Amino acid sequence: MKLQLTEEQLKFQKEISDFTREKIIPTADERDREDVYPREIIKEMAAQGYTALTVPEKYNGLNRSKIDACILMEEVAYGCAATAISLITIFQAETMLMLFGNEKVKSHYLPLFREGLIASYSLTESKRGSDIRSVDTKAKKKGGSWIINGKKTFITSGSAAEFFILLAETNKGVSIFAVDRSLPGITTEIGDYSQTIGLRNGPHMDAYFEDVAVPDYCLVGEEGKGVKQAVITLNNSRTAAAAISVGIARAAYEHSLEWVSSRKAFDQSVINFQGIQWMFADMLMNINASRLLTYQAAFLHDIGKASISESSQAKLFAGQMATKVCSDAIQVCGAYGTTVNAPFGRYLRDAKSYEIAGGSNEILRNTIGKEIKKNLQKLYS
Fold first, then answer.
1. 83/39 Cα distance (integer angstroms)
2. Judging by beta carbons within 10 Å of its beta carbon (0-12, 13-18, 19+), is residue 276 exposed, middle or buried?
3. How far apart (Å, rounded) are the C-alpha atoms in residues 349 and 156?
């Protein structure tokens, strides 16, 4: 693997960095306090093609690589992780359609992402959590449509979603559907646990589906194969998720370093204390190690050798790393680090939240462990 970014990728990185500093960072703390979806920013990103970054050109996308997606996510998360989460829910919906959708559903929906379509990945139910092997939401075939009834909960980006990727039980098992928010019978509301401490891109809504008629072509992939498709799609997004954690950690590292470099204590700059230098050495080492692991997983995707283990390792390591870096950033900044006017509280809340969202540390360890067992069987068979 070539570990150096190309000139084109470096140019893209600067382009996203400039966009983040101009459009995202100035209002990041305000949006976090108000817990609102960054609709205008997402629409601006769509106009630049960023929301359709990995979508094929035939569907009006930019057809860029997974590493490019990681570059995008890290730079956006550096400014605001909640905005990056808004992006990743769109990417998950696109990925599901690209990997499993029939031509009609792809031709209908994929071009709309370049126009700013806001999507949500609607898996979770209140009684199921991470277990999606069976769901209470039901879909029954009726003529040329599927009739969907049920409730989804804790939907990221749900307050603004115009489109859902939804899991529902059919006669053959759990299946995936592409569901337009404008269809009759869909309502959303703020639930008891909709507002979170981190990754605040609007309340994580509850959605109710009452006799919602979805066209037959909106069955995504094969009936009864929804769990497999959902797992593949989630794995596909975990490199981008890891990059978000890297971006959060980098922001905490850089802003705390800036503070201690200008802060005086005991007649010298705080950065001159060896103990402080050691903390920053560990922060930098772990950020760089996490980025390399993330790029390795993305590279395997790009060459057609996607690894569930590598992607899960990347997200697990990055999530834990980001929480530790953000905690240490607060520590080195002392009282300033704990103030509401400093950004470190947001960084820490976002970092910790992403140890749970998108695949908890425990689920990721289970996944990695299963892959280790598989490799053992191959080794000794």
1. 9
2. buried
3. 16
Residue 34, CA distances (Å) to 22, 153, 198 in order: 20, 21, 12
* Residue 96 structure tokens: 């599901």
Contact between residue 327 and residue 57 where contact means Cβ atoms under 8 Å apart: no
Is residue 220 within 8 Å of 96, Cβ to Cβ? yes
* Pairing relationship of beta strands 268-269 and 264-265 according to DSSP bridges: antiparallel
Residue 230, pLDDT > 90, answer yes
What's the pLDDT tens digit per position in 170-207? Answer: 999 999 999 999 999 999 999 888 899 999 999 999 99
Q: Sign (positive/negative) of CA torsion 322, 325, 328, 333?
A: negative
What is the four-CA torsion angle of 66, 68, 73, 78, rounded to 10 degrees? 150
Neighbours of 236 (CB within 10 A): 22
Q: Are residues 92 and 234 in contact, defined by beta-carbon separation less than 8 angstroms? A: yes
Q: Select 120-224's CATH number: 3.40.50.300, 2.40.110.10, 3.30.460.10, 3.40.30.10.
A: 2.40.110.10
pLDDT band at 129 (very low <50, low <70, confident <90, very high): low
Look up the pTM and report it. Answer: 0.95
**Rounded CA separation 288/310 (Å):** 16
Q: Which residue has the higher pLDDT, 112 or 154?
A: 112
CATH code given to domain 227-380: 1.20.140.10
CA angle 281-360-28, nearest 5°? Answer: 65
**What's the token pair of residue 240?**
């981008």
7-118 CATH, one of 1.20.272.10, 1.10.540.10, 1.10.357.20, 1.10.10.10: 1.10.540.10
